[in-house]
Amino acid sequence: MHRKYLTALFAVYLLLFFVQSASAAQDQWQGVSRIVAVGDIHGDYDRFKEVLTRAGLINARGNWIGAETHFVQVGDLPDRGPDTDKIIEHMQRLERQAIRAGGRVHALIGNHEAMNVLGDLRYVHPGEYEALKSRQASRLRNNLYDRHVELVTAANPEFVADAAYRTQFDALYPLGYVEHRLAWGQQGEIGAWVMEHNAIIKINRTLFLHGGISPEVLGRSITEINEQIRLELQGNLGDEVGLIETESGPLWYRGLAAGDEALERAHVEAVLDFYQVDQIVLGHTPGLGTIVPRFDGKVVVIDTGISGYYGGHLASLLIESGQSYTVQAGQRLAIPENRQDLLAYFKSVLEFKPDMPALQQHVRNIESPKPSPATPAVIPDPAF
């Protein structure tokens, strides 16, 4: 057989192998001795670096020093803050450095990653457009405007695009908007990177995801969920029921984070049993400024409100030697595994970080319960 033909055949084989591998990304690991998990970042690069530094993952130069640690970021890197591009670029660098050191970085897909890929830009910060603005920004926006006018005129021949209309258009589509859409598109630098990742992973006997597993999703395997979400982000929904935009999907569901524990307990046990895990770690739902254990520590909500938009409460979850800890303000507290120790845990957090009024109020509610339904431990993000 001709060598040139063999070379071409081998290249095709490699390409097919790469595509198959990319569509079935690894989503389970065992035998990991140290795990650090961090909640939603929302475009705040300074606090992103600070929380990773305090967790012992990066040095003063921002380089990986976590050795064989598995670092899990549970989604929602973008929106609400201006620095998403810096954060993603840094995450990409840490991914490479961690692998060389024997560790891993897991950047999970959250609802805000999905929103940006799909073009739902309600929560994009103006600084995110500004950061991606290129030298061709004016030309790109002019081209977009010209195409827009063509489409509107075709639908309504009497339409006249005057100066006021152009001003309104420019306000809706700032410079950098086109670059943002190109970057977050399915083939774009950021969008393609997002779709390389998982929405849910299992490390040892802990499940990590952004929102939660609802009764409607329970029964799907980890790999099935990840492949379905990647298909939907690529626009290949087909006849399947979608996961990425429904409130019962794993990027949005809040029942484990905010639902009544008495009503949700049986479902939590079913999730633990189906996925063969002891603990579920979630982001998506900020509230008290610290890590919130629920269901006797079987569910751990780690969206502490790291970004300045949510108060800048820096904390990470450490899982080591079978024990889970909150790392915050230079302290390390064991996550309680029963309701009796929950009050003492929250009080300990307040001892070294008293400037958290929501947590203070929650402690008062525990100490002096009222006959009416208790105040939820978490406050849902309004991005529904």
Describe the protein's topology.
Elements: H1 3-23, E1 28-29, E2 34-38, H2 45-54, E3 70-73, H3 84-100, E4 104-107, H4 111-118, H5 126-132, H6 137-155, H7 163-172, H8 177-184, H9 189-195, E5 200-203, E6 206-209, H10 222-233, H11 255-258, H12 261-275, E7 279-282, E8 292-294, E9 299-301, E10 315-320, E11 323-328, E12 331-334, H13 342-352, H14 357-367
Parallel strand pairs: 1-5, 2-3, 3-4, 6-7, 7-9
Antiparallel strand pairs: 2-10, 5-6, 8-9, 10-11, 11-12
Helix pairs in contact: 5-8, 13-14
Task: Explain what you see.
The chain has 384 residues and is of the alpha/beta class. The chain has two domains: 32-122 and 187-327, Metallo-dependent phosphatases (Purple Acid Phosphatase, chain A, domain 2), CATH 3.60.21.10; 134-175, no CATH class. 42% of the residues lie in helices and 13% in strands. It has 14 helices and twelve strands. It has helices at 3-23, 45-54, 84-100, 111-118, 126-132, 137-155, 163-172, 177-184, 189-195, 222-233, 255-258, 261-275, 342-352, 357-367; strands at residues 28-29, 34-38, 70-73, 104-107, 200-203, 206-209, 279-282, 292-294, 299-301, 315-320, 323-328, 331-334. The strands form two sheets. It has a six-stranded mixed beta sheet. Strands 4-3-2-10-11-12 form a six-stranded mixed beta sheet, sandwiched between helices. Mean pLDDT is 91; it is low at 1-23.
